[in-house]
Amino acid sequence: MKKQPHGPELILASNSPRRRYLMEQAGLEFSVIPSNFNEDSVALSSPDAHTRKLAECKAKDVSDKYPDSWVIAADTIVLIENTILGKPGSSDEARLMLRRLSGKTHQVITGYCICCKTRNRFFSETIKTDVLFKILSDEEIEWYIGTGEPFDKAGAYAIQGLGSFLVKRINGSYTNVVGLPVCEVVEVLIKEGAIGFKK
User: Is 130 annotated in the active site?
Assistant: First the structure.
């Protein structure tokens, strides 16, 4: 059975092809309307609080324009030894990130927000997944950098892509590592009556 929205439509407030893919895989029907919120305007705080705040701001930005819709927004970071790893801007940065992750456990933290302005409904949460990398050889790192995949990914890898060979084990939500904790998001949408099951 397919999960389908009834009543107000769902909006994904993100340009991320990974989040779009995850929602499509969950059988959801939705529109993609990215937020224009300036993420740099949010002061840095704890990783959990920061991702949650960014998700809330992005969701509110789109919800203000589409108050009858259920808006879903998210923000994902990679954290290792209390350091946030963003998207590498060069091969050197990607190399440093991958070496730092090699043989260690890091956390992928996603803050997400679901809201509908006209119904005065607002929900946000943070989900964390532990990811253990295998010990990477220099040859593996150089090959992976050469594929180009690390450059638009936080932490310089994509678990759902070629980077799957880097990951030895995860503890927690797999879809959270990809960019959206689908189980938790769908649970909220069902509880709030934003989606149901249509035969």
Answer: no
